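Record pair follows.
FIRST:
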Amino acid sequence: MGQLQEIEPRLIHWGYQIIAVSADRPEKLRESIERHGLHYLLLSDSKMSGAQAFGLAYRVNDQMLRELRQDGVSLEEASGEEHHLLPVPAVFVMGKDGRITLEYVNPNHKVRLDPRILLAVAEIYAREA
């Protein structure tokens, strides 16, 4: 989330709006917004209906649940649900015409899209608009 905040002014300058979606419940998102001073729109998909509709949801297996709990992470506490679903990290860039111009999905939650790539793509399509 911090990387988005760093590039947000340039994206806004080019006419983009950042909308982030999290598996956390709204109360947890408020804490994140306040803690990190986020300015972009951060929405809750704690029931995972959006992630499922986009084909991005996956069920966390028992081993991963144990590892998360050992790291102090409770999916039930974060989402307020017991579905044990998480979204695969994804980034979509959509043009004003509603067409998706970039789709980045990586099942490894530790590998995120480099913000420089996002900026480069956003700038190209902003110049074409």
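SECOND:
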Amino acid sequence: MTDSPHDKLFKEAFGNVKNAAGQIRCMVPPSLVEHIDFASLTPVPADFRDSALRDSQSDLLFSVRVAGREAFVYVLFEHKSSTDRWVPLQLLRYMVRIWERCRAHASNLAYLPPIIPLVVHHQDCGWAAGTCFDDLIDPAVRDIAEFARFTPQFEFLLDDVGRVTDEDIRARTLNAFGMLALLFLRDVRATERFLMRFPLWIDLFRSLQRAESGRDALMVLFRYVSMVADQLGLQRFQQVVHKVLPEAEDSLMTIAEEMRQLGLEQGLHQGMQQGRQEGLQQGLHQGQRALLIELLRTKFGSVDEQVSQRLDEADESALKRFAQRILTAATVSEVFSSEG
């Protein structure tokens, strides 16, 4: 299963260590930030998600030193159309997988490294569920004081991007690409708001264009729009770019050509698939016909031109009937007796 456009943009922007550090700083309490050695922050290639959830989630894992010890920051990016109250259970499962991987790589491990679970959610609806594992336990039992020691106790830190303002995003220690990625993730599906706010980000686009890999990052953003926006929204987006950011219009045209080529390739692929299927069916039909002729010759001695023609014109079900009749027919004509 391939990643969604939301996954691709999130990973492109926050797989970058500088942006990851800025995102973590804005989510983690200051009292914990002071113990984190952000210079040690390192991406860890991994994917701990359940396959059934990959259409609605993405994840990133980083190792980092906390109070001089190894720790992990696990970032789960949620892009469901509604709040999933079972995220704490999913996080617990993913955290266990991380710890199991640690043990598999270090058989003499004395202690499990701590994990800071972060959830980034970007739907307009906002997050409407709890952030503690306790929230999943039946309150009638959870409120019994003695029961607490039998239940996992942890919470995750939430960044509800759909509710975050431009000013809040700009205050984060992210580069221009990281800021624009969050703004695009927040707004691109709300066409009117996105097109209205786009001109307000012109300084971020200018900064992005000056960056070393700025054009590549711009292409990632534009490609995201082309994959998420509907056709009308995309046409209007092209008009806004032409007016507000004309120097980037060539990048947008490149994306449009990519999409056109992708459409042609998909059509060609579908045609080839159909052709292969038709060829397979034709080959099976010819194989059935050849086998029937061989059976007829074996039993009746010869096959004339008229019989060959009838086999050529027969469909798959007719060929199956002929094969069944050969077993009991006394003459060739009995094989075709009810075929008219």
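COMMENT: The first strand starts at residue 36 and ends at 43.
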